[in-house]
Amino acid sequence: MRIDVVSLFPEFIAQCAAFGVTGRAIERGLLSLQGWNPRDHAEGNYRRVDDRPFGGGPGMVMLVDPLRRAIAAARAADPRPVRVVYMSPQGRPLDQAGVRELAGRERVMLLCGRYEGVDERLVRAEVDEEVSIGDYVLSGGELAAAVVVDAIARLQDGALNDAGSAEQDSFEGGLLDCPHYTRPVEHELGKVPDVLLSGNHAEIAKWRREQSLRRTLERRPDLLDGAALTEADRRTLDRLRQG
Ligand code: 6GU
């Protein structure tokens, strides 16, 4: 898969992606990441990329043309069609299903705004969807784009060393993850739950499922509506709600 990032700080995203799972996915050729700087497509001695908003108000708005030329250069660098995503707090909130949808594409372009945002005409002409990573304000789309790159990279086949890890994650299946333990068995902070030492894989799976359900019920009951629940899960939830 290929991800192009249009940003005034393309090195920032490249650095964010250089480590761990994303770094390995890039090394392994599972993901290619290319930055495009609108400043390289700006005109004049000052290479302006922004201007004051019509109608007044604080801040600056990113100009149509440098962005449009950067997007055109990125599109032209590969013949495959590309999904253009504008990182913006006005966008659709990103969730794991949204990440999966993007991760399944051959090409995605992430557009990062700075200042108050980008000229709306550019958004209408070039953008397929707007995506937000949560209800808080960032100074620019770069951190959000780095989040999307990470979430996409780890879903590429071969990116995780253990193929089962992605399926076990929080939100896959719509529930929060269960707690995890490693050595030592006995520690001054507590003992590892006996069931995990039992070697009984069916009992372990049952315990983990119940832990996931309990945590989701306690911390994110809103997720239960969209979760894939069995009859046994529903009975467990009823019992947890009683207790
Ligand atoms: Cl995608 N961009 C910016 N600038 N701020 C955000 C965001 C994105 N998501 C939440 N806040």
Please write the CATH class name of the largest domain.
Alpha Beta
What's the CATH architecture name of the largest domain?
3-Layer(aba) Sandwich
Structural category:
alpha/beta
Supply the number of helical segments. 9
Summarize the structure.
This protein has helices at residues 10-16, 20-27, 64-76, 96-103, 120-126, 142-153, 165-168, 201-219, 231-242, and strands at residues 2-6, 32-36, 50-51, 61-62, 83-93, 107-112, 117-118, 129-132, 186-187, 190-191. The chain is an alpha/beta fold and 243 residues long.
Features:
single chain; 243 residues; alpha/beta; Alpha/beta knot; Trp Operon Repressor, Chain A; 2 domains; five-stranded parallel β-sheet; 10 strands; 17% strand; binds 6-chloroguanine
Please characterize this protein's 3D structure.
With 243 residues, this protein is of the alpha/beta class. It has 2 domains: 2-153, Alpha/beta knot, CATH 3.40.1280.10; 168-241, tRNA(m1g37)methyltransferase, domain 2 (Trp Operon Repressor, Chain A). It has 9 helices and 10 strands. The protein has a 5-stranded parallel β-sheet. It has a 3-stranded mixed β-sheet with strand order 3-4-7. Helix 4 (96-103) links the parallel strand 5 and strand 6 (107-112). Helix 1 packs parallel to helix 6 (142-153), helix 4 crosses helix 6 and helix 8 crosses helix 9 (231-242). It starts with a strand and ends with a helix. The structure holds 6-chloroguanine. Residues 87-89, 131-134, 136-138, 140-141, 144 line the site of 6-chloroguanine (6GU).
